[in-house]
Design brief:
- By secondary structure, the protein is an all-alpha fold.
- Helices cover 75% and strands 0% of the residues.
- The longest helix has 18 residues.
- The protein is globular, with a radius of gyration of 20 Å.
- It starts with a helix and ends in a 7-residue tail after the last helix.
Length: 235
């Protein structure tokens, strides 16, 4: 927190020496080392490769593989990125983790005009909001780009814009049911905060139609909230 990277690395090395088989500590150390010199970056890669091995559990492998994807992308090794992504997509992951890899796959394989900007969103330097905004500006018809921009706007509290974009992305069609579910859950909150009744109704209908029990329960809950305290602009 004070900017003492050398001290932080030394302390985390000591932690890892005390608990060499704890993946959380090892992956934290690797994340610190990636910002170092070539030798430290090589150590980080070795740590990620250890925890990305097939002998490890799926959640840990997924975290390590995602980190390796970013290292390989920074090095321009597209073949390694593809191989790592295929390995991650083959894992038995929950919807949230799998959706991340599906999103990366979508960006890597996009042949749309904004494809390079989508790849920048996941692998490029700078602000994710800027990458997503440029992607939507270049290709406003791409629902996936709108979905990514909606996420960034929601994180920054721009509920009105976020709700509109989530709703339009859902209407246009997202890449898989996992994205539909995620967008519906995000939209219901952003629409409520924005006071957007039409978007709220859209979100509730989306959640009710996914075929997943917890989504139906969420839809029922939001219907009850809306009935008890109807949404108003600027909520």
């Amino acid at each position: 927190a004070r900017g003492d990277r050398r001290g932080a690395v030394a302390t985390m090395r000591a932690v890892c020496a005390d608990a060499p088989d704890e993946p959380g500590y090892a992956l934290s150390l690797a994340a610190m080392l990636t910002a170092g010199d070539a030798a430290e970056a090589a150590q980080a890669r070795a740590i990620y490769q250890r925890w990305a091995a097939p002998a490890q559990g799926a959640p840990i492998r997924a975290s390590a593989l995602e980190a390796l994807l970013r290292l390989d992308a920074a090095a321009g090794d597209r073949a390694a990125v593809r191989a790592g992504l295929d390995a991650a997509l083959a894992l038995p992951l929950d919807d949230n983790r799998r959706r991340t890899f599906e999103a990366i796959d979508r960006a890597l394989t996009s042949g749309r005009p904004a494809g390079p900007l989508l790849r920048g969103y996941f692998f490029g330097p700078g602000d994710d909001l800027a990458w997503a905004a440029m992607a939507v500006a270049l290709d406003p018809a791409d629902p996936f780009a709108r979905y990514l921009l909606s996420l960034q706007l929601a994180e920054r509290g721009f509920s009105v814009l976020s709700a509109r974009l989530f709703a339009s992305a859902l209407t246009a069609g997202l890449p898989s049911p996992r994205f539909v579910r995620a967008a519906g859950r995000r939209l219901v909150v952003q629409a409520w905060r924005a006071g957007d009744r039409a978007a709220l109704d859209h979100a509730i209908a989306t959640l009710a139609s996914t075929g997943v029990a917890i989504d139906r329960a969420l839809a029922d809950d939001w219907r009850e909230r809306q009935a008890a305290a109807p949404v108003t602009a600027g909520r």
